[in-house]
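Box 4.2: Ligand-aware structure prediction
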Amino acid sequence: MLFYYDIVTILIRVILKICVIKISKIEIINKTKTMNETIQKIWEKRPVIISGPCSAETEEQVVETAMRLAKTGKVDVLRAGIWKPRTKPGMFEGIGVKGLPWLAQAKKVTGLPIAVEVATAKHVEMALQFDVDILWIGARTTVNPFSVQEVCDALRGSDVPVLIKNPINPDLELWSGGIERLQKVGIKDIGMIHRGFSNYGNTEFRNAPMWHLPIEMKRRFPDMLIVCDPSHICGNRTGLQAVAQESVDLDFGGLMIESHIDPDKAWSDAKQQITPERLAEMLGEIKWRLENTDEKEFVTALAKLREQINHIDDELLALLGQRMKISNKIGEYKRENNITILQTNRWNEILAKAVARGEKLDLSQDFITKYLDAVHMESINHQNRVMNED
Ligand code: PEP
Ligand code: MN
């Protein structure tokens, strides 16, 4: 009798355990499902706003940042660096795996999806284990195809969205190559982050924006999300608003801006971080643009102005063609008289005059110099051809 009673008790226990496991599994599946739907919505939303500390430092800091960001109602994703690629040894290199449960906790408290940077297969494995919703590949990783491939191999079979930052050097092939590697392992939701390109010496920017480069990437991947990271472009707080506005004017799909509960005390990138409340103010001051409008008056006016520009561009090209014909003639004279092509003095004179004239026409010195350099190079090529003709 006692034996029969024991078996029934054991059976009931087993059935109960199975039920509990099943219910929690269903809960996890449902939770994952809603999170996946949230991420999908975020991926299609414009603008996407990603913010959070450069680095996760303590659980309190991560959770408080998340709560204050969520309170603004303007942030879609919480970012935090767990593994930090630092230029020099001895700097804070990230809290490591220990920080992942803090991010999970921040997500639980606020409902904000979480994003971290990954640079190795182990990072990917750990981030996915802790249900990180979006991964990003950092600028120092994008430069190295071995590392990008290692990350991609670890991502095979996963459907986590991945953002890829531009490489630190202005090489679009590396950036495109990273995207292609992600596509090849089956990642469907891929986005780009423009964080500027490193330069030598003291300049206005920590990383020069070189806007023509992300614009070219937009041309190559017209349907892909591209987010601007004004924090790493500026390296300070004062420039953030203007850079964010510029990216909005250039039709970027979102912003990644670093925020911290006490920016001056941040363990990394202290100079460029802002409080969640300052971020909300900044976002409030941005003039969000529409890419297109059906408003008739605007459309007609715009079409007219574009027509004028097309016309002027045609004329400029025709003039440049004429100019090169004259260069050919000069080449012929130089060949007959055996004179060198490059006469530095004359070139410096032309440059100085053009810069002075350009200033009066509201054309920057940088533009004039680049323009004349290109024209000069083309002219030299023409003369070279002429001089070396048989
Ligand atoms: C970062 O986002 O904190 C970071 C390290 O950025 P980047 O890879 O652009 O230098
Ligand atoms: Mn940073």
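In the box above, the bound molecule is manganese (II) ion. The longest helix spans residues 2-44.
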